[in-house]
Design goal:
The protein has 616 residues and is of the alpha+beta class. 35% of the residues lie in helices and 18% in strands. A 6-stranded mixed sheet has the order 4-3-2-1-5-6. Strands 12-11-10-8-13-14 form a 6-stranded mixed sheet, with helices on both faces.
Length: 616
C-alpha cells in the first residue's frame, strides 16, 4: 500500500506541547511564535521532519498556520479544513479561525500588545507573508522578529531525520526537452528581468529543470533541493549527495555544478558579496533567502519563479504521456466503480474501497506496461457525513461503511512515470428514499452543470482562472448554494498533483496558456450529511478561430476518462447543450476504455451501460 490508515492526529498532546513551546519562547524572550505548515521550500508536500504544525497541534491538513501567544493560541485554516480542524485539534488550546474571515496578520493586530516580540522562522515563511504580518504588528506597536533556530525543533525530541530518497532521471522521451534547452530558456527569462541569477527553492522547479525526480515527500516525486540558475554561465544544484548515484551525479555534472545542501546558505552570501542582482519569488521562496543576499550586499529583484510558467506549459511529449496515463487510470477507475456498484450496501468500508482502488491501479498499470510509482495523494474515500469534509482522510477511527442510500465520494490519483492523475467521482450506494434521492439529484446535477460549463468554455488569450470560476458556480448560485474551495488547480507531469501558477479560482490571476493542465472540480457539501464533487483534468488548447468571430479562442480538452453516475442526474435541470456534452463525453469514455485489451466482458458490459446516452 502507498498509504496507511493510521490516525496521525493527536489532539490530546496539544496542551502539553503548547506549554512546552511557551516555556521555550519565554527562555528566548519571545512573546509569541508563528508556526506555518511549511518547510524551507514552501511546498505543499513536506517531509515528516518538517511537520511542525501537525506535531504541535494535531492538525494534518496540507495548509494552515498556528500562532502561540502567552495567554492564547489559534490555528488558521481555509475552507477545505473548517470541519477537519475541529476533529483533530484541542480547541480549548488552539482556537480554530477561518482564514477567509480573519487572516493571521489581522488576528495578531488585535491580539498582540505594544512592545511584544512575536517570533518567526525566516526559512519557513515567504517575504510576502512576513511583510503582511510585520506591517500588522507595527500597527499594534509590536515587532515580528526572525529567529536563528526554530523553537519548535528545540522541544521536538523525537523529530524524524530528513529524507534521503534516491534521485532518478526523467527520460527525455517523457520530459520532451533537454536540460540544456530548458536552461537556455530560463536564462533568457532571468536576463529579461535584468537579473544576474535566480534562486530556485521549489523542488518541482529544480526537478523539471534538471529532468530528475525523487521521493523525499509523500506521494510527490520530488528531490528536496535548491538551485541557482544564471542569465549566463553554469547553474548550481544544492542537494544531499547521498541521494545521488554515481550515474546520476555524472549526468547532472554535465550541465551544473553540484554541491551539498549545507552549502546553499553560503552561496546566497557569496551572491550578495559579489553585488549581483538576484531574482527572487517573494510569494514562493523563504524570507531567509532574500535576507542573506541583501545582508551580504546583493540586490533582490522580486519576480516570479522563472521556471514556473515553462513547467506549467506542458510540451507535446508531456501531454502525450499524461494522456496515456489517464487511459490506464480510467480503466482502473471503471473497474473500481463497477466493483463498488456491484458490492452490496454495507459490504464495504471506506478503507476497503480505498485499498481496492489502489490495487486496481497497480494491476491496470502493469497491464499497460507502466508501473504505478505511487498514488498522487492520500485517497479521499468518504461516505455520508465524511464526504462533507473537503479533504477528508479516512483512518481506522473514522472509517464508515458504505451504507444503503448514502453518497460515496472518492477523490484519488496516481503517479505514473509518464503522468500524474487526479479524479473525483460521487456515486449513489444502493438506493435512497424518493425525497432524499431528489435532493441528491438536484445538488449533483447543479454540480455537474458547473463542471460542464468549464468543459465547454471558450475564452480569449489573457483570460485568467478567476474570470472562469463563476461558470462553475452559477447553477449552484441560482439556488443559494456554493462551495468553499477553488474550482481547479494545476497538475504537473509526474510531479505535484497541485501545481501553480495556474488555477481556476477567485484568486487565479495568471492567464491560462496552451499546455497547462488544470482540474475541473466543482462540488457541494452539506455539513455533517453528504458531499458531492465531480473532477476531471483538462488541458488548455491552442486558440482557434470561431466561425463568425473576430478573434481566436482557447478551449479545454478533457483528458480524464471515467463514467459519471447517471443515477444521480436530473435531466430536466439540464440544457440540450449540457446533455449533448455528457453524451459525447460518455461515448468517448466507452470508445477509449472499452478497447482495453484485458478488460473483462463483464466490465465492458457494465461500462457500456454506464456510458449510455442520458435519454437512453
Amino acid at each position: 500500500m502507498f498509504q496507511s490508515f493510521e490516525e496521525k492526529a493527536d489532539p490530546a498532546k496539544g496542551a502539553e506541547r503548547a506549554a512546552a513551546l511557551r516555556a521555550e519562547l519565554k527562555a528566548r524572550a519571545l512573546d509569541g511564535f508563528v508556526v506555518p505548515r511549511a518547510d524551507e521550500h514552501q511546498g505543499e508536500s513536506v517531509p515528516k521532519s518538517a511537520e511542525r504544525l501537525a506535531w504541535l497541534t494535531g492538525f494534518t491538513g496540507s495548509a494552515g498556520t498556528a500562532v502561540v501567544l502567552a495567554g492564547k493560541a489559534a490555528i488558521f485554516v481555509d475552507g477545505r479544513y473548517t470541519l477537519q480542524v475541529r476533529e483533530q485539534v484541542d480547541v480549548a488550546i488552539f482556537k480554530p479561525v477561518a482564514v477567509m474571515e480573519t487572516s493571521v496578520a489581522d488576528w495578531l493586530k488585535v491580539n498582540a500588545t505594544p512592545g511584544q516580540q512575536i517570533g518567526y522562522d525566516p526559512w519557513l515563511m515567504t517575504r510576502a507573508e512576513v511583510r503582511r504580518i510585520a506591517d500588522a504588528l507595527e500597527m499594534a506597536e509590536a515587532e515580528f522578529a526572525p529567529v536563528a533556530s526554530n523553537p519548535v525543533d528545540a522541544i521536538w525530541s523525537d523529530r524524524p531525520e530528513p529524507p534521503l530518497a534516491q534521485v532518478s532521471e526523467q527520460p527525455e522521451a517523457l520530459a520532451g526537452r533537454s536540460t540544456t534547452d530548458k536552461l537556455e530558456q530560463v536564462g533568457r527569462a532571468i536576463a529579461e528581468k535584468r537579473a544576474d541569477a535566480a534562486i530556485l527553492t521549489d523542488p518541482a522547479s529544480v526537478a523539471w529543470l534538471f529532468n530528475i525526480r525523487g521521493a523525499d515527500v509523500p506521494h510527490t516525486p520530488l528531490p528536496l533541493s535548491f538551485a541557482v540558475a544564471r542569465a549566463e554561465g553554469r547553474p548550481e544544484l544544492f542537494i544531499d549527495g547521498r541521494k545521488l548515484s554515481n550515474a546520476i551525479r555524472d549526468t547532472l555534472e554535465r550541465t551544473a555544478d553540484v554541491h551539498e545542501t549545507r552549502d546553499f546558505a553560503a552561496r546566497l552570501d557569496a551572491l550578495g558579496e559579489a553585488g549581483l542582482r538576484v531574482l527572487y519569488d517573494r510569494t514562493g521562496s523563504a524570507e531567509a533567502v532574500a535576507q542573506r543576499v541583501e545582508e551580504a550586499g546583493g540586490t533582490i529583484v522580486e519576480g516570479s519563479d522563472p521556471v514556473a510558467l515553462p513547467r506549467a506549459r506542458k510540451c507535446a511529449a508531456e501531454l502525450a504521456g499524461t494522456r496515456a496515463a489517464h487511459i490506464r487510470d480510467g480503466v482502473a477507475m471503471a473497474r473500481f466503480l463497477r466493483f463498488v456498484e456491484k458490492s452490496a450496501p454495507g459490504a464495504l468500508s471506506e478503507i476497503d474501497a480505498a485499498k481496492r482502488l489502489e490495487a486496481l491501479r497497480v494491476e491496470t498499470a502493469a497491464e499497460g506496461g507502466m508501473a504505478l510509482n505511487d498514488i498522487s495523494f492520500e485517497t479521499i474515500s468518504s461516505t455520508g457525513p465524511n464526504a462533507a469534509i473537503n479533504h477528508y482522510r479516512v483512518t481506522e477511527r473514522t472509517n464508515r461503511i458504505l451504507a444503503d442510500g448514502d453518497l460515496y465520494l472518492v477523490d484519488s490519483g496516481g503517479q505514473y512515470r509518464d503522468g500524474t492523475t487526479d479524479i473525483t467521482r460521487t456515486i449513489l450506494i444502493g438506493d435512497a428514499p424518493p425525497a432524499r434521492r431528489d435532493l441528491y439529484r438536484d445538488r449533483f446535477t447543479r454540480v455537474l452543470r458547473g463542471h460542464i460549463a468549464i468543459s465547454l468554455a471558450r475564452f480569449p488569450k489573457g483570460t485568467t482562472g478567476a474570470q472562469l470560476d463563476a461558470l462553475a458556480r452559477n447553477a449552484l448560485w441560482q439556488s443559494g448554494l456554493d462551495f468553499d474551495h477553488g474550482t481547479g488547480h494545476g497538475v504537473g507531469s509526474y510531479l505535484g498533483v497541485h501545481e501553480g501558477p495556474q488555477r481556476i479560482s477567485k484568486t487565479g490571476h495568471v492567464p491560462l496558456s496552451p499546455g497547462m493542465i488544470i482540474s475541473n472540480e466543482p462540488g457541494f457539501y452539506a455539513a455533517n450529511d453528504f458531499g458531492i464533487r465531480i473532477e476531471n483534468l483538462v488541458v488548455v488548447r491552442e486558440p482557434e478561430p470561431v466561425p463568425g468571430g473576430d478573434r481566436p479562442m482557447h478551449a479545454f480538452e478533457t483528458i480524464t476518462l471515467a463514467p459519471i453516475d447517471r443515477r444521480l442526474i436530473e435531466p430536466r435541470l439540464m440544457s440540450a447543450a449540457e446533455i449533448a456534452w455528457l453524451d459525447c463525453y460518455h461515448m468517448r469514455v466507452y470508445g477509449v476504455l472499452g478497447g482495453w485489451p484485458t478488460l473483462s466482458s463483464d466490465d465492458r458490459a457494465w461500462l457500456a451501460a454506464a456510458c449510455r446516452p442520458i435519454a437512453g
